[in-house]
Design a protein that fits this description.
The chain has 12 helices and 11 strands. It is α/β, with parallel strands linked by helices and about 300 residues long. This is Phosphatase.
Length: about 300
């Protein structure tokens, strides 16, 4: 008997829903997939709370997810929440409101667990190979870095420096182009906050950056759109992003205000501001660690949850 599972990732910026059917042989079929820009961290993340408006947006999105899951006759629901709820003083209250209004049980996971699931998602997307790679997942609330190879995780850490936090701190005037001094301040901040990453990279010597979903997805879509192409919904989850392409995109983004960013083919409204600070972080990482290649994984946390079900 095939069983239907729903996997929900309640991110700081985006809520994701994936509905799959698994048969006893472990063959999976994706029945439904969506993402909603809830912006759960907006207005409150830097104060350590979920605002009433964000809470309402979250509940509304999950009520829709519940309807979709019922339509697909889902039997098992796995829902995880990350940085915004992890660090919110009213996180537990929001979780119980979700349970009360939608019947969905949400598990708030640690940063270490989040990193582990992201790596499992990436492993499902691509062959990693014997050499260590550096995986980077830029969320709204936290950024996960994982160093691993085909044998598994060598080092992992979640840093509370997600894009919504960086926007609040370094780039509050997002209608305007980002200023050189804002970029400089942000780079200094990363240098300071990521000392443990620097030590780990020195130890394990990864040469390739694997960017997991989010901003990296959008950069791939922008690159394809610039060539008049669209990403195929059933295409490979393992996507290249040439270094020269990233540097060209980043240089162009630095000059643009929000309206100009929004006009870029392939840009998503939900990423239009966060992509700026995220790209500063990607550029810093590539330069700091002398990485020679970027691969993009369309899979991340929710596919990591799926990988565990498949095991």
């Amino acid at each position: 008997m095939a069983r239907r599972f729903a996997l929900i990732d309640l991110g700081t910026n985006t809520f994701h829903l994936l509905i799959v059917e698994l048969d006893p042989d472990g063959v999976q079929q994706t029945l439904y997939k969506t993402k909603v820009p809830v912006k759960l961290g907006e207005g409150g993340i830097s104060k350590g709370e979920i605002t009433p408006e964000a809470r309402e947006r979250g509940l509304k999105a999950l009520a829709e997810f519940r309807k979709t899951m019922d339509e697909h006759q889902v039997e098992v629901v796995k829902a995880t929440a990350t940085s915004a709820l992890r660090n919110a003083s009213n996180g537990a209250e929001v979780v119980s409101a979700i349970k009360e209004q939608t019947g969905i049980d949400v598990e708030i996971i640690s940063g270490a667990r989040e990193a582990e699931l992201i790596f499992k998602g990436v492993q499902l997307a691509m062959e990693i190979g014997p050499k260590p790679v550096l995986v980077m997942d830029i969320g709204g609330g936290s950024v996960e870095f994982i160093i691993g190879s085909e044998k598994g995780i060598l080092w992992k850490k979640s840093f509370e420096i997600g894009a919504q936090r960086l926007l609040d701190k370094f780039y509050p005037d997002q209608e305007q182009p980002i200023k050189p001094e804002q970029v400089k301040a942000l780079r200094h901040y990363l240098q300071d906050k990521l000392q443990k990453l620097t030590a780990a990279v020195l130890q394990h010597q990864p040469e390739v950056l694997i960017g997991s979903s989010g901003t990296f997805d959008t950069l791939v879509d922008m690159d394809l759109a610039a060539q008049g192409l669209l990403r195929h919904p059933d295409g490979s989850p393992d996507m290249p992003l040439p270094l020269s392409t990233f540097h060209r995109q980043y240089k162009a983004l630095l000059q643009k205000d929000r309206a100009q960013r929004m006009a870029i083919p392939g840009m998503l409204a939900m990423r239009v501001d966060m992509i700026m600070v995220a790209c500063v972080a990607v550029d810093w990482t590539l330069e700091k660690f002398n990485l020679e290649k970027i691969r993009v994984s369309a899979y991340a946390l929710k596919e990591g949850m799926l990988a565990e079900l498949l095991q």
